[in-house]
């Protein structure tokens, strides 16, 4: 995700990316993110600061790149045999992930980036593709699911809005309940 | 909004706030926000940088404070005589404001702040209170409106999610249409 076009995987460029990402992750476990600097990351990664500036432009863009890579799911959503339980299971996991400290930091980092490739939109595209996998599976199984935008509007957006703009605690079953309400046609 | 507790309105503290806010606004009209620095703001406002650091802590917090002050509506939502048209009119205006360049910058600034008083939550509280005014008026007029959370979940959250996480163009009537769908009980 971080690699610019034309970079050979496994080459020097990939090694630099891996060591810089690793340096960010380990440093963030040691110091507050407000104190993190590019020279620190460079020193830990064994590269020069200018290597980082050349490749990522600035620190927010680097942090967003690391966040985005972490957010990439290893697997597709669990297949439980039915649309309702697939979506409920996914929504529950999504809420847990986005509400966690790393999830909140990830959201903050992708929103703060100045990268023109918009990590925030890339992040939302990953969410959308996970949802689409569930919907495609449901169609194959003869179900008639709502479309991905409807799931985003009814389940994802209200959760993310609360996480970003509301400091009240969120019901741990909030996203799952939104799925249930959507499928039942209730408010 | 910016003033800490115990500051006398009209005193030196209020004058400092006004001149610093004014300096931020005029500088942002001249240079990209990525280039703005505390010493620049201080010079323009005729105060020392340490005055700004002491009062606001850092630049993101100052920017969020200015953004929040601008977001404060001068009036309550327009009274059109009925819940539906009140909410539709408000939703249309809200979308226009939040989609504009100053609105997007405001959202970005309140989300980037490190201020423990959470300008993002203060900003959402202003939105909520505008909605609540419409709902209270409807109840007085004998209508039975949905609650403010329902409006936030169905109208505000999907709009803000798209503005933050989607670079596709948004239908200019999106928020208004969401109000109509909510009141009609359609998806």
TrEMBL record, chains A, B:
Keyword Transcription assigned: yes
DNA-binding region extent: 37-56
Domain of life: Bacteria
Protein name in UniProt: TetR family transcriptional regulator
GO molecular function: DNA-binding transcription factor activity; transcription cis-regulatory region binding
One family name in Pfam for this protein: TetR_C_11
Keywords for this protein: DNA-binding, Transcription, Transcription regulation
Domain HTH tetR-type: 14-74
Gene3D superfamilies, per database record: Homeodomain-like, Tetracycline Repressor, domain 2
Species this protein is from: Caballeronia mineralivorans PML1(12)
Record bears the keyword Transcription regulation: yes
